[in-house]
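To close the section, here is one more complete example, presented without commentary so you can practise reading it yourself. The ligand is IPE.
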Amino acid sequence: MLENMTVPKHVAVILDGNGRWAKKHGVPRAMGHKAGCETLEKMVRIAADMGISYFTVYGFSTENWKRSAEEVGALMKLFRYYMVRLLKIANENNVRVKMIGDKYRFAPDIIEGIDNLTEGTRNNTGMTFVIAINYGGRDEIVRAARKLVEDYRANDKDVASIDESLFAGYLDTAGIPDPDLMIRTSGELRLSNYLLWQLAYAEFYVTDCLWPDFDQKELEKAIVAYNSRERRFGGRK
Ligand code: IPE
Ligand code: IPE
Ligand code: MG
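Output:
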């Protein structure tokens, strides 16, 4: 299906619809999240095999803490379980894992799990798999501004040296190119605080497919659609 197609270098996904999938199947929401984690595990391998260089997924937003204690608890349990599995899968597939978001709001054992995953895969040279957890685009920009101000104050730097690329270096995504393609599953037409800075010129693709049902074919459809787009970045051909 992807013959003669350009595979985007960086694909970012808002994996939405776990709750709707659970409802459709008459099971608790937590089961929808578990099915979503299984899909994620599969998609990491598939994305790496397709030759995508950076694959970024939105797993938990800064706003998702507002959900019921029961649902947040179920998600934390899944993080604990899948972080360990992911370490193995990432190493088997030469995948480097990075986390973006503010990890310090998580329990100490989850922070340790995040560090193990990052450290344990740092020398892999294949795809970079970026997981956004306790991530919010606004929160990331505010934390970046704080880091920048602290650095400039401590080192008595000249504010005239601040430009877009310098600022981007203080974001959680420092060193990662901006996404080329942003996919949202489950039909919602909003960003939900995802990668506000980085998505400035990404092509958007929204599908009604619920995240637990997402597969290689769905990703290929998104890449075909991406190939039909005329990217402009503000200029004209
Ligand atoms: C996405 O699925 C996963 C998270 C936000 C953690 P949802 O839980 O948002 O699923 P819907 O939107 O209720 O279907
Ligand atoms: C966005 O999905 C966050 C993640 C996928 C982690 P939500 O389901 O939380 O977004 P809204 O509430 O529909 O905007
Ligand atoms: Mg949702």
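Once you have examined the tokens, check your reading against these statements. Residues 69-92 form the longest helix (24 residues). The two ends are 28 Å apart (CA to CA).
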